[in-house]
Specification:
The protein is α/β, with parallel strands linked by helices. It has one domain: Glycerol-3-phosphate (1)-acyltransferase, CATH 3.40.1130. It contains six helices and seven strands. Strands 1-7-6-2-5-3-4 form a seven-stranded mixed β-sheet, with helices on both faces. α3 links the parallel β3 and β4. α1 packs across α2 and α5 packs across α6. The longest helix is centred in the C-terminal third of the chain and has 26 residues. About 5% of the residues have low confidence.
Length: about 230
Amino acid sequence: MTGSGRAPEAGAARRPQRSQAPSPAGAAVGRRIGIGLMYGLWKPRVLGAWRVPSAGPVILAVNHAHGIDGPMLMGTAPRPVHFLIKKEAFVGPLDPFLRGIGQLKVDRTTTDRKAITDALGVLEEGGALGIFPEGTRGEGDFASLRAGLAYFAVRSGAPVVPVAVLGSTERSSRLIPAIPPLRGRIDVVFGDAFDAGDGSGRRTRKALDEATVRIQERLTGHLEAARRLTGR
């Protein structure tokens, strides 16, 4: 699971209407599935889940080093999460399944207006939006962020909660390199919620660039603290 999409042009005011809103009930089903799978196949240790607001819009910004980071967060977050997922994952029977559990398809190669509209709709309705701000799986160190997270945070005013998913780094112990060893311990550490904007309400390109810098500082700081806490 991956993808945050490109940010639209700064200051864009009009959005296309959604053809079908992401389903909160579907996301709740996805959470139950995630709980069963993640706790059945691995040993998650969840730290700081109380930092996630219990209600209202929130953006969960997750590092992305493993192929299971999305499902792991769906199964360990204290509330249902709608993730932005790359369109390549919506193939065959996975397409109706992912849609059915309230997940959002995004085309990472362009400004995907429908994905943007659906993601903002989740936040407008008080839901939790999950984003991999790095855009794709890599080192999972928040070293390079795409602009989508800043746009959603500034546009919606929703607080951002940094999340560090820390699993095994021993690739030789994995049957599949992108997936931690089965029954291995995985730490999921939630950080303090913060506002990405500067309080001015500006949505200019400069404002988004400044917000991206602030977000990156907070996310990398949280990741460092999570590694110290867990010994990863």
